[in-house]
Amino acid sequence: MPTTITVEGMTCGHCEQTVEAALREVSDVTDATADREAEQARVDGDVDTRTLVQAIEDAGYTAHA
After folding, report:
1. Where are the domains of the chain?
2. Contact by Cβ (8 Å): 18, 59
3. Tens of pLDDT along 7-57?
4. Which InterPro entries match (predicted)?
5. CA angle at 6 for the pair 4 and 38, rounded to the nearest 5°
6. Rounded distance, CA 43 to CA 54, Å?
7. 45: which residues sit within 8 A by CB, 6+ positions away?
8. CA dist., res. 18 & res. 13, Å (int)
9. Contact 64/6 with Cβ under 8 angstroms?
């Protein structure tokens, strides 16, 4: 089941790529997409939401589920 996380601070395509890359590095994530206009990231995989939020924050963005 996909998880949607609110991501604040993405301003360009590079930001989206950075968030996607950070999420894909998390164990058990099978896919991740970020949308700066919607201020969201969608993650596929069986991963705790707190882990996903932490990965986004470690990449330099503000996130919450």
Report:
1. 3-64
2. yes
3. 999 999 999 999 999 999 999 999 999 999 999 999 999 999 999 999 999
4. HMA_dom, HMA_dom_sf
5. 90
6. 14
7. 26, 28, 29, 30, 31
8. 9
9. yes
* Model pTM score: 0.96
* Helix (H) or strand (E) run with residue 42 in it: strand 40-45
Burial of 11 (0-12, 13-18, 19+ CB in 10 A): exposed
Quick one: tokens of 57?
């924050």
Q: What is the CATH number of domain 3-64?
A: 3.30.70.100
Give the pLDDT of residue 1: 77
